[in-house]
Amino acid sequence: MLFDDDLPDLDVTTGYRGPTACRAAGITYRQLDYWARTGLVEPSVRPATGSGTQRLYSFRDILVLKVVKRLLDTGVSLQQIRAAVGHLRERGVDDLAQITLMSDGASVYECTSPDEVIDLVQGGQGVFGIAVGRVWREVEGTLAELPNERADDDATPVASSARDELAIRRQARTAG
Question: Which pTM value belongs to this model?
Fold first, then answer.
């Protein structure tokens, strides 16, 4: 299914910490940190504001992280990925779910209909495609099993069983 339009609405007040974002996107924490510091994919729920603060990534951020990972895995250059991500940032979440990214290994093309995919493949340009709606569902399924937290709550994750000792100490220090 390349194009699908019955994707759910997103809760923009819920975010995911770095390790959770890494797990859902299939990347390392080092990649996540580098991409955040260089502006490729920055956390939109809560950015890092100094030493010790927790970044919170939105569902959309994690979706873009997973798409970036897939493009890297297929050999697309980071420069081309930066251009593609810049373009994706200009689109709304609903639009993101409607597109398929195609690439010939050097350039990334956006297709918003099955006809565009066919035209690109017939032109001999597209080698592989990433249906963003399908990636959306994969990320959604993975995140359903992982802890998240509310953007307005700095210390208490929604899934408290996943809290680590350091988070508990921070909470105790700030509370008393």
Answer: 0.70
